[in-house]
Automatic annotation (TrEMBL):
This protein's name: Aminotransferase class III-fold pyridoxal phosphate-dependent enzyme
Family named by the database record: Belongs to the class-III pyridoxal-phosphate-dependent aminotransferase family.
PANTHER family: AMINOTRANSFERASE, AMINOTRANSFERASE CLASS-III
Keywords: Aminotransferase, Pyridoxal phosphate, Transferase
SUPFAM superfamilies: PLP-dependent transferases
InterPro entries (UniProt xref): Aminotrans_3 (IPR005814), Aminotrans_3_PPA_site (IPR049704), PyrdxlP-dep_Trfase (IPR015424), PyrdxlP-dep_Trfase_major (IPR015421), PyrdxlP-dep_Trfase_small (IPR015422)
Co-factor requirement: pyridoxal 5'-phosphate
GO molecular function: pyridoxal phosphate binding; transaminase activity
Superkingdom of origin organism: Bacteria
Taxonomic source organism: Ectorhizobium quercum
Amino acid sequence: MNSVVNPNDIRGVIEADRAHVWHHLSQHKQYETIDPRVFVEGRGMKLWDAKGAEFLDAVSGGVWTVNVGYGRESIANVIRDQLVKLNYWAGAGGNVPAALFAEKLLTKMPGMSRVYYSNSGSEANEKVYKMVRQIAHRHHGGKKWKILYRDRDYHGTTIGTLATSGQDQRAAMYGPYPDGFVRVPHCLEYRKQWDVGNYGERAADAIEEVILREGADTIGAIVLEPVTAGGGVIVPPKGYWERVQEICRKYEILLHIDEVVCGVGRTGTWFGYQNYGIEPDFVTMAKGVASGYAAISCTVTTERVFDLFKDAPDDTMSYFRDISTFGGCTAGPAAALENMRIIEEEGLLDNTVKMGERLMDNLAGLMERHEVIGDIRGAGLFCGAELVSDRATKEPAEEKKVQAVVAECMAQGVIIGATNRSLPGLNNTLCLSPALIATANDIDAITG
Ligand code: PLP
């Protein structure tokens, strides 16, 4: 057994990382060939690695999470104070930060009234799937149990949420999956599937076609990202959401919006769905809720849904038969409350709108100069540039080309992302999602 590495021995830390840490999304052959980059410090929009190199982070912690930026002492202090007072309670009854954060959060979500806590986006989404199934058993005689999901969307890494992955390659190795999850087409107009006037309405009508094929009485809910993240930063076209809402009401299908990425400010509103005036039955959120300072996710729903769990003939089922052990950690809601205070006090939603416009303008400038950019899309500080090898045919750029752009930016000290490495046909969109604190200088440096 090796001795414990001294944290100041950078070479030792890097070797320990190489030898023992199983990294997310890293090709195993890289372990032998690449010196792993170990990050040691972050402040605002900046990151430093173990060798002292400085980076401007244009992806908020790699996966759209650190919305208020790094090094927030006030969040660290709130967490510390809460931990020494009461770190955890998940038994009957509640705890103070859980109540305070739920109340505050709901002031930003008119129409919603209940918050169910857990730890990750996947878990928050699974809770909805279970709720939908319980409602089906209790109120629809076991019918209305299926859940629709959309091509190119992503909802998590568990077997249940992978069953709703619209990105096949992520799910391919982990089947077979449970029944009852049915795919509807994506709505990316740049990759047209229908030649029609109003593309948004047509793409939504495709959902209705699936409902009619499956039978409306079998379908309980549909899960959709407000802006598809890892599937290519897809902003639904005009008319889409209105029609989706209409269809859900017509067939009594519960609308679940997965705000794991868009939630808590990313698109310039508190939640992505609020850009479209829709009224969901479920909203799930995770990444930006506490900006990565603590693990927390929320499944938020309406009083109408909450009431469906009351008054079962058998009292033992008059509640949601579920628990999340670490849903009782107080650090999450304490950090989340402070995270919201910062967003409000520093006017970060307005900043997101302004800086998002600047980012899109800059991307439009880049597109004029670089043929390789086929399309740009964005909502607030959540932007994508789809790379193609030929603008006329829209042939997606090869993965190595996309990765070369990412690597070149890294070499120049700017960390950008790309959608879903090794997802054939989906891996060609560069992702830019800086923290909501980004300044004009930061935006210009990212696109410089
Ligand atoms: N939903 C969306 C839209 C996501 O992008 C992700 C993760 O990237 C998830 C759910 C899963 O979240 P987690 O990784 O916290 O389980």
